Input
Amino acid sequence: MVGGKNMKTGLKVIDAMTQEIISVDPDTSVKRCAEIMKKHHVGSVIVKENNNLLGIISEQDLVYKVIAKDKDTNEILAKDIMTDEPVTISPGKDIYDALVRMRDKNVRRLPVLDNGELIGFLTSKDVLKIEPQLFEILVDKIQLREEAKKPISTTEITEGLCEECGEYTEYLYEQDNTFLCENCKI
Output
């Protein structure tokens, strides 16, 4: 809810979702998962078995659970680091509901399930492509919420629209209470 009102866009998750699902088996090495993510230019892969969603692996999972712990990427498997029981959404839900779910659950990606079957994938970028105004409102709200959580001296990286040039980026930097992209920060 923005301003205490329920905001609906009239656009459904199915209208914005990506139908091509980049997935791996649970026994795929983390190194192979990273290679697949790089090849397809995606920030996550779905872990599934027999078209059943088991989990999701994001860039953050790779960094926090493998690289930062200096683990062997050839030895660690997808099932070892995946986030199991990921937050999902149904294709008939409104885009606004999807963004609220992303915000509330602190995720940027939602597998789309139709009667338990994985049919697609919705990312914050997918939403941005079709509904930028709604995204701006929610990004502002998310940034305010995150700002309240962090210490005053911390510079935190987040995603959203650069307040200088207006471009969307996955990496915003806070500088003098302004969120800037890599190109606009001093």
Summary: Residues 132-180 form one domain.
